[in-house]
Design a protein that fits this description.
Layout: H1 8-21, H2 24-35, E1 39-40, H3 41-48, H4 52-64, E2 68-73, E3 76-81, H5 83-96
Helix pairs in contact: 3-4
Length: 98
């Protein structure tokens, strides 16, 4: 069997995604967005009973890691799951846990 080759850049990007989804608050945001396909920051922080800066910070990390996407509609920015990336991450977790 050949030795696995780890590309540092790919490994770093993957670890960023794992870190992004591993926080309880970000997991709660992902769960909410799986129920409601798009939400703005106000809707999210109201449901989580948190302050807006904290929720914005978590959304930023999820966005930068490619787990959520942000789309401006008028004055509002709506967040939704980047389902393709989330499915890839879940598939990776499933393969590890076999």
């Amino acid at each position: 069997m050949s030795k696995p080759v780890l590309e540092e850049n790919k490994l770093r990007k993957t670890m960023e995604k794992f870190r992004a989804v591993s926080h309880p608050m970000r997991m709660a945001i992902i769960d909410m967005l799986s129920d409601l396909p798009k939400m703005n920051v106000t809707q999210i922080y109201t449901r989580l009973k948190l302050d807006q800066p904290a929720v914005s910070f978590h959304l930023k990390l999820l966005r930068l890691s490619g787990i959520v996407v942000a789309k401006r509609e008028g004055k509002e920015i709506y967040y939704s799951l980047h389902t393709e990336n989330l499915h890839k991450l879940i598939d990776c977790i499933d393969r590890i846990n076999k």
